[in-house]
Every structure is written in C-alpha cells, then in structure tokens.
Request: fold
Amino acid sequence: MNKKTSKPSLARRTTLAVMAASTIALIALATPFTAFAEDKSIKVGIMSGEDEDVWRVVTAEAAKKGLTVETVVFNDYTQPNEALERGEIDANAFQHKPYLDNQVEQHGYHIVPVGYTAVWPIGLYSKKHKAVAEIGEGATIGVPNDPSNEGRALRVLQNEGIIKLKDGTGILATVTDVTENPKNVEIKELDAGVVGRAIDDLDAAVVNTDWALKAGLSAADRIAQEPIADNPYRNFIAVKQGSENEAWVKTLVSSYQNDTVKAEFDKVYKGTGVSAY
Reply:
C-alpha cells in the first residue's frame, strides 16, 4: 500500500519543483537589468550660475538611467567640500585637483575625483589696455586670493613676462615667491568672486573664466590666458572616499560625459570653457 502511494507523491513533488523553477526563470527574464536594484536618488553640489543650466541636462540624462539627481547650489567655493565631507550631499562638481589638494591639506577631507568635466582657462583681463605690452610702470593687477588660483594667476603673469617666480615654485605660489617685478606692478589679492567685478578699478586682473562671465567680461577684454594643453586645472566630479566604486557614481559620470551635455555646455559657456574628458 505504501509503495503504491509513494510514487504519485513523488511525481507531484517533482512537478511542483519544476513549476516553481519555471516561475523563477520567467520572473528573471521579465525583469530588465539595471545598474541599481531600485531607483537611486543622490544630491550633487554645484556652483550657482551657468552650471545650473548644464546640470539640468545632466539630471535629465541620469533620469533615463534610473538615477535621480538633485542639485544643491552653492555661492561660495569653500562650501561644497564641507557639505560633502559632512554627508549632506553625495557628490560635488566645481573644482580642480590643485584646489582639492589644498582643501584636503587644510581640512583633512576624504574626497576623491571620479570623472572629469571641463576646464576653464584662466585669463588676464583689462578694460584699460588692449595688450599686455601696454601695462605700464606701477600698474595694479588683481589676482584671486585662494591658494590654488593665486598660484595659477601668478603663472599667467610670469608667462607674459610681467613677473618672475622663484625657481622650483609649485602650483601654490604666492606673491612672496615673486623674485623679479621689472615694472613694479602692485599685485592686489582679492576674493575670486570679486576680482573680476573690480576690473574698473584695476589696470588688469587675472580672473577665473566662470567668474569673468558673471562679471560681464568677454573675450574682447581678455589680453592673455594660460595654455590649454596639459592643463592641470581640469574640473571633475568628486565623491567621498569609499564611494568611488559604487554603481551610481559610474552612472553619474556617464550622465555628464556625453554629447548631449557637451552641446549644452558649449551653448552656455560660448567657448570660454572646454570639455575635458
């Protein structure tokens, strides 16, 4: 009796097992593969102004890939890294490596770059002179006062023969590193956001391109600029150390590094910035 009843029971169990396996296989086939187990939402710190237009397009590109990006807008260069370190945002996109290196040294941040965005060649602007050669004895030239950008600005002045820096001076040069100043120019250190707006009170000023746009300066006002080739000042997307290998990071970077975003970038920055990836 037991032998007769055991065979149907085994068959039923086998049938149920096959059906269960088939159901799992169908579910797997019906579920498309995505970078995330579920949609992911992140916050990205950016600077106010033209970059907001660019990041609207980045946000749209990310949404197509299941990544929701909320931009958090800052007006001060010192704020996005502090917010990232505290975990208030998941990434930021506003800085180059010399600036980050200096911030890490000063504050001990645990922040790493994960994907290049663009480079804005810093330039020497003037409303009073049409060429560097016209800058005369005792002229006043403004430069940004934050360590990385001041060194960058002083190198522009050195390239143009206005000053000479001490041999071996690194990218964080300051006015104390000036060894030759044949025209006795006065170098006025100002906040990066102010130096361009002070152009009417100066003979010339070295201004970051994004701040030059905000100050109403144009290519016609630029009498010199740093070289683009091998430029160490490429900007990038940065994240907290330990997050760099997470799936959303790769998605965020690819959402920026594409032709759709480049077209918007070129439209917004009118050739003053150059894509750097």
The chain is about 40% helix and 25% strand.
